[in-house]
Predict the structure.
Amino acid sequence: MGQELNSAALLASDFASLSDLIRAHAAERPDKPAMICGDDAISYAALDALLDRLAAALQRDGVGKNQAVAILAASSIGYGAAFLAALRAGGVPTPLQPSATPAQLAAMIADCGAPVLFLDAMGAKALGDAPVTAKRVEMDGPGWAAFLAPQGTVPAPVQVGPDDPFNIIYSSGTTGVPKGIVQPQSMRWVHIARAPGGFGGAVTMVATPLYSNTTLVSFIPTIAWGGTAVLLAKFDAHAFVSQAAKHRATHAMLVPVQYQRIMALPDFDSFDLSSFVFKTCTSAPFSAALKADILARWPGLLVEYYGMTEGGGTTALVCNANPTKLHTVGVPLPGQDIRLIDEDGKEVPRGEMGEVVGRSGAMMSGYHGRAEATRDATWHDGDGNRFIRHGDVGRFDEDGFLILMDRKKDLIISGGFNIYPSDLEAILVEHPGITDCAVIGVPSEQWGETPLGFFTGTADPAEALAWFNARVGKTQRLSALLPIDELPRSAIGKVLKRELRDRYLAA
């Protein structure tokens, strides 16, 4: 076997393409499952052959090097294959969020210039009648077989380098057209190379949508190292633990709300999850109490990562080794330069709060076609080094652990005082009748802004409001506390506070 098909040599190199790694795994472990979804599975040999047929068809239909290929669908083996085939064709997979409006989806497809759009029934419903020029390929219909190039067809080889785009991920804006985040090959290579202990023997539960960077940071290294990705088309806590026990899962990336629902299962302790060696979490605030519960009842390491889809700096909290630091998001990973700056762009002293900015080998190339937005997301230090502005406010404690407060845009300024919603939410959730909550800033003639809370649970709103306001300072008191059936969340568990504001202002 030539070195180009030796996965160990490729993984030990300074850079390799994911497509070459899959071809190497197909030669070395042809029968090993690459992906499992429900009752379906595909081996590395079958995946490699399918990618050739898909990539050849993409090239046939006009996909050239560094050209976008859009995907709008639920997680499935077909989705994973479409994503990976776009890379083999030399293209740039561009996953889209089905939760976006038809107009937003059409605008994103036009923005990236994709000549081909892969979609399933859910994606077709989300897109509706919105006009798109991209060729539609049905992933769950007869159009899939018709699209494939003949069996045995091999695509034209395409060489890619570290600076070429790997994928485009559109930010989750609730208004306007989301920004396309261009992640280069070098950024994904960092994710692959830093996979803890390699993922070669990993059986990774993939329980968040494949259009999310949170998911791809786990899915891509699993495939790159020759592991097995177990895909859930839709998250369900009971289905997750059942599938994890059945397949003897070793790894998982979950968001906090998923951990919360899993740990709340009445029969959680009846499932054998002893095969787990590494669980991770990211994307949303992760309470110290929930981390402690997972440490007590779920075997394996628990690591919380903090970072951005745009890249920049990443921190990690190894929860098992730092039980007194569960209120933090950990320390910067090796090679990560994270600093805090004030409103004037000056660095703040250690211990003081500031906006998080980060620099590393894993950074976006920029926002697709939006030079001004790229500049706005960038900060340079005194030596001219480029950093990504994270948009979060935080501080480092005396041991160098980062404590996050809130998104800078969610900061409430009431009567000239800074109020951090996360501080108030941490108190609210202590009420025995409140299961989930969110605090937002709303307009106030007297104070400019005032904090207002939403909650789920059985509490009486008036009683809970009085209970809360008796426990905080005068400037932190809530103007109102409103019950809600369910907090609006993104697919990766982030509370959509803009939607809560819009709902309140429209009432």
